[in-house]
Design a protein that fits this description.
single chain, alpha+beta, Beta-Lactamase
């Protein structure tokens, strides 16, 4: 596949249905984890114009910043802290309509208003999280959850 994306407008579902096969073709034959995480973040940022999208990787007892698109971000997050650390601790996707109302929210960017964090689970352990932030309140919903969980299911981590 060429490294160009077909960006479509329309419903969120239509956007995901066009984007997903393109993302899959970008990563299905590439064995390098970092390259794949970078391309996933880039494709999502390009399609949805979110403020920030990227990955945090579990390293020992912290989430450590991985490939991302957007403003400079927090480098390390402890388990249970902020939206990312809470998603990691609970091993569940979190959708936050207003980050200012989330107890313990870590404000990496003051422009972030809403957020979704999707854990990447392998062999019953969270190995990373996909984090997306928007400048708009209530930007994420069950549609994002469904499709982002599908995308993170495709990521190959070394065992």
């Amino acid at each position: 596949m060429a490294e160009d994306l077909l960006i479509v407008k329309g419903s969120k579902t239509d956007q995901y249905k066009t984007l997903l096969p393109q993302v899959k073709s970008l990563i299905e034959t590439e064995p390098d984890l970092i390259a794949n995480l970078a391309n996933i973040a880039g494709a999502l940022k390009e399609q949805f114009s979110w403020l920030w999208v990227g990955f945090y990787l579990v390293k020992k007892e912290e989430l450590v910043l991985g490939p991302f698109q957007g403003p400079v971000a927090c480098t390390r997050i402890k388990k249970g802290q902020g939206v990312c650390g809470t998603s990691w601790a609970k091993a569940t996707t979190l959708i936050v309509a207003d980050v200012e109302k989330f107890p313990g929210h870590i404000a990496c960017s003051s422009l972030s208003r809403s957020e979704i964090v999707v854990p990447v689970i392998r062999n019953a352990d969270v190995v990373a999280v996909l984090d997306a932030d928007s400048e708009n309140l209530d930007a994420f919903d069950e549609t994002d959850k469904q499709y982002l969980e599908e995308i993170v299911g495709w990521i190959h981590f070394d065992s």
